[in-house]
Amino acid sequence: MLSIMELSFNPAATIDAALRQIISNSDLFNVGFDPEVRPADPRFGDYQANGVLRYAKKNGKNPRELAQAILKAAEESELFDASLVELSLAGPGFINFKCTHAYLGKWLNQFASIDEYQKGAGRLNAGRKIVIDYPSANTAKQAHIGHLRPMVIGEAIARLLDFCGSDTVRDNHIGDWGTNFGTLIMQIKREGVNLDHLNEDPLAQLDQLYKDGSNLEKQEPLLRDQSRAELLKLQEGDPQNTALWEKIVAISKNAFQKLFQQMGVQVDISLGESFYRDRVERVYRELTDAEIAELSEGALVVWHDEVKKFARNNERPYPFNIRKKDGASNYASTDLATILYRVEHFKAEEIVYLTDARQQDHFQQLFLTTQKWFRACDYPLPVMRHVWWGTILGKDKKPFKTKSGESIKLQALLDEARERALAVVAKKNPDLPEKEQQAIASSVGIGALKYADLASNRTQDYVFDWDRMLSFEGNTAPYLLYAVARINSIFRKTGIDPDARMECVGLLETEAELTLARKLMGLSSALDLTLADLRPHFLCTYLFELAGAYSSFYNADKVMVEDPSIRERRLLLCARTRNTLITGLQLLGIEPLERM
Ligand code: ARG
Fold it and tell me: What is the mean pLDDT of the chain?
C-alpha cells in the first residue's frame, strides 16, 4: 500500500497518488478527476492540489464542499500521517499540504547522494525509449554561433532525459547529402585540390572552396550545369565522387568532434541524411498507396487541408514537398524515412528534434504527415516533439555578428570565452598558479556561455552579453560555480568528507534551515517542470534560488557551532546543497570546480 510515510523523492507525486487512491475508494467523484498537485505558495504549504476547482466546475458541484470532503477522507485514511504532513483547506477549494519538520528531516536523510536523486528521478521516465536528434549540423560548413544552441540545449535535454530514467539514443542527423556537394566537387576538381593535403584547418578550406564555387556559378551559368552533373554522378554512386564525398564528410566529422569535446557534447550515433538515401523509396510508395501524397507539377507533395497555411486552397499554397520535380529526395523525404527507421530499428517511443525557430513549419508538416502515414499503415506512432529556440542577439538587438557583419565562428567564441574568463579569474584569485587559473577559466568560460544560453526561456531571443554571463552576481554560471566552491572550502577546512554519510538527528529549527530544506526538497518539482516542455531555464531558476536560500542560511546560521547535533545538521544542509547544485550543473552540461 502506498503511504505518504513512504518517503518519495517527489512528494508531489506521492500526494497525487494518495489522493487518487482516496478518491477511488469514495463515491465523491466520477472518473476523470486529476488532483493537479503542484508546488504551493510557500506561505501556505509545500504542495497544493488545485484539481477540485476544475472538476467541480465541470460537474456542477460546490468546490469547497468537495474539497472539505476529500480533506476529511484524507485525514481519516492512514495515507496521510499527521506527524509528517499537515493538510488544510484554502480559498474556494484548494487543499494545501505542509510537510512537517520531521518529514523534512527524514527526506534529507534519505536523499543523501546524487545516486539517490537519480534513483528517485529515474521513475519519471522509467525506461522510455527516446531518440534525441541533435546537434545535426550540415557537413562541409564551419560551425558558427548558430551551432551553439543545438549543442548546449540538446546536451542539457539529453542529460535531463537520461537522469529521469529514459533510455535515450543521441542521434546526430547530419546534413551530408545536400545539393552543395555538387558545387563543392565541381570546385575541388576545377582547382585540382588534393583533399589529403589541406591546411591545418581543413574544414575552413572546404568552406572557402564552396563559397568560391557558388560565386563562380553566379558569373558562369555553365558551371552550374557542371555542378549539377557532379551531384548526379555522386547520387548514382560514381566512385571518384563518392571517394571525394567520403573525405569531405570525414573532415567535417573530425572538426565537429573537436568542438563536441570542448563543449562536452556526447552523441551516440551519426546517421546522416545520406544513410536514408535508399530508404526514401518506401516512403514514396506507402504514402502514394495510402493516397496521402500526390503528384503536383511533377513533384510529390502532401497537403494538410485541416491546417490553413498548408491547405490546397490557400492563396499561397504551401504543401509538404517530399520528392523534387527531378525525382531527387529532399530534407522532408529523408526525415520521413528517418522516423520510420527510428521506430523500427530503435523502437523509439518518442523523438525529440532540436533546431531553431525557423523550422517550425517543417516539423509541423512532418508530424502531420507521419500521423496520417502511420495510421494508414498501422505502425506504432511515437510522440514527436520539436524543441526550438530563438535567436542570439547582439547589443543592437540584431542577430549577433562580428563587427564586419559575418557570422561568428564557434571556435572563436569558445576561445574568447576562455580568454575573458581568465581575466576574471586572475583578478579574483591572483595568487593561484597560472596553470590552475587557466583550468578554472576554461570551465568558467565555457560554463558561462552555456548557462547564459540555458537560463533564458528558449523560445525567446536573448542578448549576448559577456560581462553579464561572466559576472559573479545574478543568475549566472560563475555565481553557481562559486557557491559550490564555497561549500567545498567549508568541508576542506573542517577535514570532513562532504560525501560521507551524515544524519540529521534533531529537528530542523531555524527559519533559514527550514527554508533551505524545503528548497532542497523542491528539486523534483523543478525537474518535473523542466521536463514537461523541455525548458532548461526552469532548472536554472531553481538552482539560482537554491543558491540564494543557501546564502541566506549561511549568513544567518553559523555552521561550526559547539553543539554537535546542530553542527551535524547544518553540515548536512551544506552537503545536500552541494549535491543538488552539482547535480543540477552537471545536468546542464557544466562541470563544477573544487575551488575557484
Ligand atoms: N541539418 C539541419 C540544419 O542544419 C538540422 C537537422 C535537424 N534534424 C532533422 N531530423 N531534420 O538545419
Answer: 94
> For position 3, what pLDDT does the model report?
58
Residue 49, φ and ψ in degrees, nearest 5: -95, 120
Q: Are 214 and 186 in contact (CB under 8 A)?
A: no
357-367 core/surface letters (b: 16 or more CB in 10 A; e: else): eeeeebbbbbb
Question: Helix, strand or coil for residue 219?
Answer: helix
Q: For ligand 1, atom 3, which residue shows the shortest CA distance? A: 137
How far is it, in rounded angstroms, from Cα 178 to Cα 453? Answer: 29
pTM: 0.96
* Residue 523 pLDDT: 96
CA distance 245 to 79: 65
- What grid cell was written down for 291? 493516397
Cβ of residue 136 lying under 6 Å from some atom of ligand 1: yes
- 136 alpha carbon – ligand 1 mean position (Å): 5
Tabulate helix, strand, coil % of the chain (nearest 5).
Answer: 55, 10, 35
Mention every residue, 6+ apart, whose C-beta is less than 8 A from residue 194: none
- Residue 164 contacts residue 121 (beta carbons within 8 Å): yes
Residue 97 Ramachandran class (φ > 0 left, ψ -120 to 50 alpha, else beta):
beta
Taking residues 209-228, what's their average pLDDT?
96
Q: Which residue shows C-alpha cell 573530425?
A: 254
Does the CA dihedral 123-125-128-133 come out positive or negative?
negative
Our answer on whether the CB atom of 355 is closer than 6 Å to any ligand 1 atom is yes
Computed from CA positions of residues 346, 352, 357, 363, in that sequence, does the dihedral angle turn out positive or negative? positive
Q: Does ligand 1 lie within 6 Å of residue 350's CB atom?
A: no
**Pairing mode of beta strands 129-133, 293-296:** unpaired
Cell numbers linked to 556: 544567518
